[in-house]
Amino acid sequence: MYRIGQRVLRVMILFALFGPLFVAGIGVQAQGEHTVYLPIVVGPPHTPGSSSVVVISADTAQEDILPAEEVALIETLQGTVAHALLSDVSPDGSTILVAGTTTAFVNITTGLGVSLSADFGNYTCLSSIVWRDATTAACLASDADGNTVLLALNSSDGSVTASDALTLPGDLYSLSPDASKVLVTIADASTALAAPPAPVVVAFPTLDNPDNGSIALTSTSTTFAVYDIATNQTSELLTLPPNSVLNGTPAWTTDGTQIAFTSTNYDRTDDDRSYTDPGDGTLINSVAALDVLGRISPEANPLLQTNRLHVFELAESGVLSQTLRAPGIDTFGGAPFEPAGQMDWSPDGTRLAVQVREPAQVAGRQHPVYTYPARSYFQVYTTTGSLSDTLQLAATIEAPQIAAQWVSDVSFANNDVLLFNAAYLMDVGLYTYSLTSTTLTDITPQPGTYGQAKASGDRVVFTYSSFTSAPEVYALNLDGSGLQALTSDNTAAQAANAVRADVISFTLESGLTHSGYLIQPADTPFPPQNARVIVWQQQGPSQGPPMSNFWSARVEDGFNLLPNFGYAVLVLPLYGREGFGAEDFNRLVENDNFGQVDIDAMAEVVQQMVEAGYTTPQRVGIMGCSYGSYFVTQSLVRHPDLYRAAHSQCNLLDLMVEWKRGFVYVAAYLEGRDPYSDPAEFIADSPLYQVAQVETP
To answer: 3.40.50.150, 3.40.50.1820, 3.40.225.10, 3.30.70.360: which CATH number matches 497-693?
Structure first.
């Protein structure tokens, strides 16, 4: 009880400065998967010579200062169940494995479930969960003794059965959809580098994924092979050199006879030193740095020149293969930290859909940037059912709704229809594309965030939430009709969530218009009048999660927390956010823009809100975590008299340090220069060096 009260107390006290209190300390700092609580100093508005403070620390037991009913409301809002779809829909189109309050096989028509046996907890799945047949799901798993087994999960009775221990010929990479074959990697120790390459970190970690944006490269030549579990036979596919990486998750045909994946190599084409330990800081002559700084031409950039789509068939005569390059200077999509979604085979194995990414042309940089592409589109290749014939390009699919670089997943609903689950504006929506009619159709039932979309025949199953809807699992017909909830785990939170969310737009002096949401208590008017407004900015940017309309009552993004306690929250995406087009995405890092353009745009928005009577200067606060925390502190530096309160969490304060010891290539991308040739820009964009300008609170 106390911890919940204390977590929310940090935010509630922070914004209580709209009344008699203010915060003089930072309340939380993220470290990996853990949250460290730091002392908060709370007292009356500061006056010179005043020394009366109250210290609230996690090291000392404190009484809850929130009323019991408010603590209970917080528990309800924060106690929502986050669902995960653990499998595709079964081959007969009836069932999917869902993790929620329990882990159960759920009928996608009736919503009725069969709970998985508690024996499942004795194993750890090492692969995705696939369907061996219509009633049996399976995964490769580790048992209590560390053995690798094939785990069978019966959807009829929930029973769990393990095979005898398996000995794989290499490290597990992927399990085929029928659980018959395993893609493994086999390292050649004789080719090992003197020191293993450190990960290329190209994005800030997120609250849900502390390893987000970390690309691990091979330290040896690595052979990829397919192991047949029944015959104990191994078929080698290809060998990649050191410093290589498979991009994303391989795509198999349903019978496990064909597999496709993309790869890239980070070595310099001129054999110059590749990047090494990030402890040495950003190495300007590394591929990672040269690319994000726009200092390497496409002709010399290995991120383009080594990018390949590999397609293999396990034929009776042996392994057949074809290798393709993306058109022009584009690359095939995927990154190691991304889940499946960049490519998929049709059910009959004759069509392969794959994402293609267009590099960013960033003003102020000489060459295109591949690590942070500008947009994506999709291509579909056809086969005759055998790779003995050349793959043929059958379709190129381009549309703003599916142009998000990372959150734009593709799958086949049937042999003719593709399903896209993609970020567009503030929704992560659902779209179908008919290869026959060449028509893209929006089947998104209502605004919000749709995730993990799984299609089977004429039905789609997905998770869904929004600012006004608590998370549940739903099913929908492929034509957009028949929306049906399959779970009801969060009805208490839904009933307690007394908020409204209204679209709000602002046109800036630059002529740019930005739209987002203002989330308020349900009984308040819109447009607002003299409201207490909290400006919120999300983690990211550029390779972070999309800034979308989803449920959250966490302290870090409390859309469903603060409005239930009387505070309006402004959620307004600006620049560097996917789903809003290439121009807005690149604008964050063009020329000298970083640290200024989005900060100043939000300040103009706040001033417009004050002028319109939506709020007053004494009733505006700002908060965020990770990049959002940078947004907060840099806003206090550039606009010291604008915000009455600020809550900066898991902070980013010094870009010099990030260049040298932190998220090195992220800093290089954001700044577009090195600190040795332009230290003044790094200092101007680092709030730490401007702390004397801060007047908030």
So the answer is: 3.40.50.1820
